């Protein structure tokens, strides 16, 4: 495997643009026709938003616009949103992202039929000891019939960071859920802990090897 650096995708935004101060944490999906779709965190110095961009084969990247705005006053993501992770599901797309109310940051979910217009489903879990201060930077992984959601948890103690994993596998009364392909998916915590060694990771996700390529490192499962 070899990597080729292509440089900046976009120049810094102009004053007033939703990404004028910062553009980071991109997530890219390739559509069957070769089109690349990107969702990333944009910040204008006041508010964080999730922005969409697209690149059709043979063309440059272009902005589509803001995909997810902060919530309304009183919502759990009213202060800003960040760190999108998008996967294709029956009937459209599912996004996990970080949303803040100004005091705590939690992992949220949203669904979309086309990847442009998103419907939020709020937070998907309660705070625990390992992520009492914040939970963000989600990464969704689908392995067979089980879904895994990895994210960074912050406990507020010396900026402690913890690996955590949430699984969506079956309907459970009383558990938070989202609808995927018209069917509800219940979400419940399987494991929340600090991961220091390979042995701490769930067994079926331990088979990783490291490959050096052109000054970068790729992790393949």
What are the main properties of this structure?
single chain, 221 residues, mainly beta, Tachylectin-2, Chain A, four-stranded antiparallel sheet, 16 strands, 52% strand, globular, disordered C terminus
Please explain how this structure is put together.
The chain has 221 residues and is mainly beta. The protein has one domain: Tachylectin-2, Chain A, CATH 2.115.10. The chain is globular.
Question: Summarize this, please?
Answer:
Helices cover 0% and strands 52% of the residues.
Domain tally: 1
Which consecutive residue ranges, at least 5 long each, have pLDDT under 50? Answer: 167-176, 188-221
Helix content: under 10%
Would you count the extended β strands for me?
A: 16
Supply the CATH superfamily name: Glycosyl hydrolase domain, family 43
CATH C-level class is Mainly Beta
Following the backbone from N to C, one meets helices and strands in this order, namely EEEEEEEEEEEEEEEE
- Report the span from N to C terminus: 14 Å
- Rounded mean pLDDT is 77
Q: What fraction strand?
A: over 45%
Q: Might you state the CATH topology name? A: Tachylectin-2, Chain A
H/I helix tally: 0
């Amino acid at each position: 495997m070899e990597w080729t650096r292509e440089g900046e995708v976009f120049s810094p935004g102009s004053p007033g643009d939703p990404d004028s101060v910062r553009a980071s944490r991109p997530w890219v999906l390739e559509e069957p026709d070769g089109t690349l779709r990107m969702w990333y965190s944009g910040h204008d110095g006041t508010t964080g938003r999730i922005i969409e961009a697209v690149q059709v084969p043979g063309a440059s990247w272009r902005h589509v616009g803001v995909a997810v705005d902060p919530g309304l006053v009183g919502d759990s993501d009213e202060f800003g949103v960040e760190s999108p992770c998008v996967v294709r599901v029956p009937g459209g797309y599912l996004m996990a992202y970080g949303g803040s109310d100004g005091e705590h940051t939690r992992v949220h979910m949203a669904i979309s039929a086309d990847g442009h217009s998103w419907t939020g489903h709020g937070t998907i879990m309660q705070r625990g000891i390992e992520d009492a201060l914040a939970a963000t930077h989600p990464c969704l992984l689908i392995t067979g019939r089980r879904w895994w959601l990895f994210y960074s948890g912050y406990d507020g103690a010396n900026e402690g960071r913890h690996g955590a994993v949430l699984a969506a596998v079956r309907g459970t009364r009383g558990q938070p859920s989202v609808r995927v392909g018209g069917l509800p998916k219940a979400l419940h915590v399987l494991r929340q802990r600090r991961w220091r060694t390979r042995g701490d990771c769930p067994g079926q996700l331990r088979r990783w090897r490291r490959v050096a390529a052109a000054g970068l490192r790729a992790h393949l499962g």
